[in-house]
Amino acid sequence: MTETIPYDDLLTRYEPVLGLEVHVELNTNSKMFCGCPTTFGGDPNTQVCPVCLGLPGSLPVINGKAVESAIRIGLALNCRIAQWCRMARKNYFYPDMTKNFQTSQYDEPIAFDGWVDVEVDGETYRVEIERAHMEEDAGKALHMGGATGRIHGADYSLIDYNRAGVPLIEIVTRPVRGAGAKAPEVARAYVAHLRDLLRALGVSDVRMEQGSLRCDANVSLMPIGSDVLGTRTETKNVNSLRSVERAIRYEMTRQAAILDGGARVKQETRHFHESDGTTSPGRSKEEAEDYRYFAEPDLMPIAPSREWVEELRATLPEPPAEHRRRLQTDWGFSDIDFGSIVSSGALGLVEATVAAGATPAAARKWWVTELARRANEAGVELDELPITPAQVAAVQGLVDAGKVNDKLARQVIEGVLAGEGEPAAVVAARGLAVVSDEGALTVAVDEVIAANPDVAAKIRDGKVAAAGALIGQVMKAMKGQADAGKVREMILAKLT
């Protein structure tokens, strides 16, 4: 078993340094250098052609829409946009890229020298962007017959080239220092910020579970007071916000144990394991010179005019920080209440639920409490739960119409999450509607009053608060399917 040390312990001796590389699949209709479709989930090897298969004699042509998206991403990240840049060939063995190199950018990225600010627990952290460059995705290898889905222990491997050539933007940070104990949370907040920003730009569906947004998390530790960066590891293809935080936290505890023991951290890639939150070795990490970059001879340089760049700047959505401030004002939330929405990763979901007809308070209530609890129990992100903002708004609509109460609404949500259909269908199928039959309620109220003469006497003597005990018993008798407010009215009408 790999040795680790307590998280709080390592913070007394080491400063964490992060480097985050986020890969974003663009939502263009065609691939980066050919006309093949980019639709997710197609039958294996049906969305390929000689160009993306790297067949001899085939020539690439750059996707203009991808260049436009790259520029808009760079502008949104406060980057400078290159007046002239080129594509390059990045060479090493790609089992899932038939031409055995990746067309990318090296020393001439299209966007560079940017920054974003992220907020964690009321503190703002600036993350500097070194570059955002264009490249193409590789295919997907499927290792069959093993227990882990990895090549070790597999009986054979299959390769699907549909993803090969899909446009990617890789966003690379400069070393992130100064976060201390909050380093894992800052990383998570940064990736969440990028996800929300890219979704607002409309350049990607940013579905981490489908791989259209992936994070490579570089982590190193250096002794407090030192200015010499430690040896880093790179945990590859982390595909959820929760996993970004867990992977970085684990790597910090693992590396600290190695350093405490007088050994050296090995520079390598590592794999993250969702099941237990650990990482394991991948391959020795190459340096840039090992990739033997050289300019791509089959593609013309890219030289976006300043007029075009400014036209694209005008298409940018409202900056995230301004957007959050406006929403908080519009919704009338306190800093604490609004902060709970942001910290839980529910801002976009709450906003969409409000747009679907719910009040801000109701939308916040469901996403930050009930649904956040269910996501935590399932070990998934909020937006991975099988329920949509429109469905949450529909649940609240049933509450507002008096058809269910909050307790029954939780059962409705449970049914929607279980795939039982829309909220109204779940109410009908499970028989969850609030009982509105005055006769049935009257019988239940009378029985409870008769069974609790001492409590009834207190209410008659003016102690109205005692009605709560009777209301609870009536609700129990009605299996929760009564309007508590109506029950209170009936009890007080009979006893006061």
From TrEMBL:
Record GO terms (molecular function): asparaginyl-tRNA synthase (glutamine-hydrolyzing) activity; ATP binding; glutaminyl-tRNA synthase (glutamine-hydrolyzing) activity; transferase activity
Origin superkingdom: Bacteria
EC number: 6.3.5.-
GO terms under biological process: glutaminyl-tRNAGln biosynthesis via transamidation; translation
Catalytic activity entry: L-glutamyl-tRNA(Gln) + L-glutamine + ATP + H2O = L-glutaminyl-tRNA(Gln) + L-glutamate + ADP + phosphate + H(+); L-aspartyl-tRNA(Asn) + L-glutamine + ATP + H2O = L-asparaginyl-tRNA(Asn) + L-glutamate + ADP + phosphate + 2 H(+)
Region (Disordered): 264-288
N-terminal signal peptide: none
UniProt keyword annotations, A-Z: ATP-binding, Ligase, Nucleotide-binding, Protein biosynthesis, Transferase
Ligase among keywords: yes
InterPro entries: Asn/Gln-tRNA_amidoTrfase_suB/E, Asn/Gln-tRNA_Trfase_suB/E_cat, Asn/Gln_amidotransferase, Asn/Gln_tRNA_amidoTrase-B-like, GatB, GatB_Yqey_C_2, Gln-tRNA_amidoTrfase_suB_CS, Gln_synth/guanido_kin_cat_dom
Signal listed as a keyword: no
Basic and acidic residues composition bias: residue spans: 264-276
Quaternary structure, from the entry: Heterotrimer of A, B and C subunits.
Protein purpose: Allows the formation of correctly charged Asn-tRNA(Asn) or Gln-tRNA(Gln) through the transamidation of misacylated Asp-tRNA(Asn) or Glu-tRNA(Gln) in organisms which lack either or both of asparaginyl-tRNA or glutaminyl-tRNA synthetases. The reaction takes place in the presence of glutamine and ATP through an activated phospho-Asp-tRNA(Asn) or phospho-Glu-tRNA(Gln).
Family in the record: Belongs to the GatB/GatE family. GatB subfamily.
Protein name from the UniProt record: Aspartyl/glutamyl-tRNA(Asn/Gln) amidotransferase subunit B
